Amino acid sequence: MKKHREEIEGKYFSAIACLLAVAATFFLPWADTGAEKYTLYGFFRAVYAAGGIAEYAPDGGNIYASYVVTYLALAGVLLVAVHVVLLLFNKRNRVLNTAMYSCTFVYFTGYTIFGGYDAGPALFAFVAVIGLEFLVVLYLEQSKEINENYRLMKKREREEKEERRRRLHFPGRYPREFYSVIWDNFKYKWKNYVLFILSGVLSATFLTVAIGMNYILRKVHSIEDIVLGTGLQQILIRAIGLIMFLTIFLTAFVFSYYIKSRMSDYRMFTVLGIRSRTLSVIMMAEYAGSLFISFAAGVSAGTGILLYMRHLLVKKLGTEVIVSSISPVIYLFALIGYIIVLMIATAINYESYLRVRDSFAAVNDVVGEKIPGRYLILATLLGLEFIRSSISDYADTSLWTVIYFTLGLYLTVTYGKALLMKWMDKSERHYYRHLLEKIPFYYRYKKNCRYLVMLTTVHLLALGLFLIQFCGNLIAEPAEKLCPYDFVLTMHEEDEETVAGIEQKYDARADVYPMLRVTTPTGNSFDFMATLIMFSPPGQNIGISEATYRKLYEAQGLPEPSPLGLKDDEIHIVFQQDSSYKVRPIDTSPGTGLKAPYLKLGQPQGAGGYEQWKVKDYECKILTGMLLRGSQENLVVFSDDYFNSAYASTQEDIKNLCLLRVPEEHYADVDKELKVLREKHITDESYDYDIRVYYESRQTVKDIVSERYTNEVVYAFVILMLAACACFLTYIKFSFEADDICRRYGFYDCMGMHEREQMKTIRKEMWPFAIVPVLVSAVTAAIYTAFVFVIRTYEPSQIMDYMKTGGTMAAAYLIIQAAWMAWLVHQMERRIKRSRINVGRQEA
Asked: Which of 198, 364, 441, 625 is the most buried (most CB within 10 A)?
């Protein structure tokens, strides 16, 4: 009898709910056809009285489908009524209940899809009550089982916790010898901490310097929007992105090495009976102590660099320029960034941490990896195509180019190496001649290929991406030469009297040239942030005639340019930027590129539509001043006939370009005069934060100097961190494999191999991991650099300056990598010899 009651749990609630649902169908409207409201049964009576659904609704529509599915509702109501009767006799039929719920669900789904008539309150009441009845009864039926399982689970947990507390009970304290053993182990394994601490030092230093440079220059640089700023703010955003990526990669990789290198020690402690809680405390103490030392050392190093950079800035800009002092705010933000980086790195390696903490299962040093055997030729050709396209479609210092190259390199190395080994192994002579140095690839194939790809990518980022940007800043012209005029003003017609008054009153010289504002639908001033916020304001540049273009050349004392030979649908662009910036298209709309922008003559709010133009040629030459770092306010040169015709018919207000030179003592006075014009035409600045009614050279020079110094510091650190990444990768690889290598060469010694041959073999095994990545990345970087010379239209003198500066730095980078690998090979040779001596002593 008890079992029968359990089967009909929730009987009374189910009966009452079902009765209410059935009553709703009798007394409340179910369907509203517009002309009249019907109960469920009244709706069917009306259809039958009309002679069928076709006569009831001659216009057709979704009501036909709704009428059909309403039969399911009727069936559901009848099943509910039968269910209530069975409950009165203490019975429940599972098949009947399933059919009841199914009819209700399918009907409501069909009605939701087809509609046909408006739902009345009875429809919603019936579906809601049946749904509630289903959930409540289901819960009541399973609640006892759930509660019983929960009670048993909690009981087991209490018993396990009590047993654990009993087993781990430690009534006393550890003796002094215990701490002595821990300390001795720490001192003996100190090398395992050095790499981990150094990676943290680099991360903390990088964060401190990048954030600090932005902070101390906040009063020097023009005020920018914290998110959409295109100068220091954009550099900071890029720097933070680089910092996060490099530091997370470096810290996670080194942290993984640190954990695995300490695993044997922790396992030994576990075998000797140390409590797991004590082991966790030791691990956390080592980890937290290393991170604290790293942060303290990194902040100290970063502070020293900031003080030196501040000294250089004050020396460059003068004492009258306010360069902010170092503030605790810098360290606070650096600490926040450091914690974020470490949290991500720790999360990446959390599984390794758990393995070490438990430290019961042995870790196999040698794991056989399968060499790819299918689609070798196809995958290799695909990888070569990616590499070819990354070179032929090279975009100036584009990270996507490196990503495409890396993807192609991975396919080429992974599958091309397997294909090459497969072909060469067919020759027994070649197979046995090169077997020993190729043994690592036979059982660690994928891991070795990943190391080759990672090392090549790191070298390519250093030599082919960031070295170009770093050297571009170093060889750039002085900031003062990039602003040949004191003020650059886009004049309205009514401003002519004001400019003439400035000339007379302040002994200024104003060169006025006809111009038209040239607008593109999508500019590139936001650059990086535009890709994140999916918005970029219209681009605004300066349109001039070829005659004006030649006058500007003459005004700068430059040789007369060659005739442009422009047609009416062709333009020539003069980018106002130095060698440190890549050439960017003036229109970033999809499908335009550098050679086919959409333009319209006039301001963004002006009339007229955009038309696509052909860029016949372009150049990078300072004629009016590097006002916006080449992103906007570039010179767009039209043919004389087209420009004169457009200039004569334009209705735009901005019609002249005024280039002002003023005496030093009147600079501030002229600035005040021009501020009045700015307030008068403030709407000209409403479409873009960067566009100004006029530009002053002093602030522009400060902006250029501050941005240039920040770029130099950021890119120098990036190259330094990439060099450290490459060194750490090679060190970690051969440190992990050192024991296996020693055992293998011990076997060679037992088989009678001469020591000289052993040393020759280990060199052949290790040096390819330095030579191959460096060679591939250096050649590719040289090709990329040659493309940059062409894209940025470097002059022969600039190319020579770059070759001297960049060549010296690249040579230093390669020497460091070669010296590091030579040291690693030397250490491995010593370790092999030492292990052979130890084996001999054990045998004796």
From this structure: 625
Q: What's the mean pLDDT when you consider all of the chain?
A: 80
DSSP β-bridge partners for residue 637: 544, 572
Q: How far apart are CA 372 and CA 386, in angstroms?
A: 20
Rounded to whole angstroms, how far apart are CA atoms 21 and 759? 89
- Report the alpha-carbon distance of residue 447 to residue 173 in Å, rounded: 45
Rounded distance between C-alpha atoms, residue 260 and residue 374, angstroms: 33
Q: For residue 577, give both structure tokens.
A: 């930027």
Query: How far apart, in whole angstroms, are the C-alpha atoms of residue 41 and residue 29?
Result: 10
- Encode 677-723 in three state secondary structure: HHHHCHHHHCCCCCCCCEEEHHHHHHHHHHHHHHHHHHHHHHHHHHH
Residue 525 in contact with residue 633, Cβ under 8 Å? no
CA 606/CA 603 separation, integer angstroms? 5
Residues 6+ apart with CB under 8 A from 356: 259, 260, 262, 263, 266, 283
Which of 519, 508, 405, 503 is closest to 453 using CA atoms? Answer: 405
Give Cα 145 distance to the centre of its chain. 49
Q: Which is nearest to 373 in space by CA: 322, 414, 323, 331?
A: 414
Structure tokens at 389: 């396209």
| pLDDT digits 0-9 by tens, 675-698 | 888 888 888 887 777 888 899 888
> Helix, strand or coil for residue 160?
helix
Q: What residues are paired with 574 via a beta bridge?
A: 619, 635
DSSP codes, 630-662: TSSS-EEEE-HHHHHHHHHH---SEEEEEEEE-
Q: Is 154 exposed, middle or buried (0-12, 13-18, 19+ CB in 10 A)?
A: exposed
208 close to 299: Cβ distance less than 8 angstroms: yes
> Coil, helix or strand for 206?
helix
C-alpha radius of gyration, the chain, whole number: 39
CA–CA distance from 676 to each of 310, 328, 401, 491 (Å)?
35, 39, 47, 13
Phi, psi of 635 (to 5 degrees): -95, 120
Residue-wise pLDDT for 341-400, tens only, equals 777 777 766 655 555 555 444 444 445 677 887 888 888 888 888 888 877 766 655 667
560-598 CB burial, b ≥16 within 10 A, e <16? ebeebebeeebbbbbbbbbbbbbbbbbbbbeebebeebb
Q: What is the pLDDT of residues 114-162, one digit of tens each?
A: 776 777 788 888 888 888 888 887 777 777 777 777 788 888 888 888 8
